[in-house]
Amino acid sequence: MAEAVKKKSASKKKRAATKKTAAGTGKAPARRTVYVVDGARTPFLKAVEPGPFSASDLATQAGRQLLARQPFEPTDLDEVVLGCVMPGPDEANIARVTALRLGCGGKVPAFTVQRNC
Question: In the predicted model, is pLDDT for residue 34 greater than 80?
Fold first, then answer.
């Protein structure tokens, strides 16, 4: 039953999305295929006090390993999405900080996702 409700809800959302138009054109927005290329993470850590590395230091190290596996340059990315539970106060958008450190360039947008339990 719950699955049927989810499917019905999903089809309503799909219809609503197709009714929306591109700003002022009267045409439906173009659909793009989105690919998640790869992912990397740092290990879990329980600590009493902060360690010698910031969250962006750890994210940059994970990102370097991730990019080393790819056949393209960091500047070829369309977008960077980074999840972080506790970024430091001087790293308001840790994804942006990390993307710049990884050499993605200023034109590649980056945003941070924070979802605590």
Answer: no
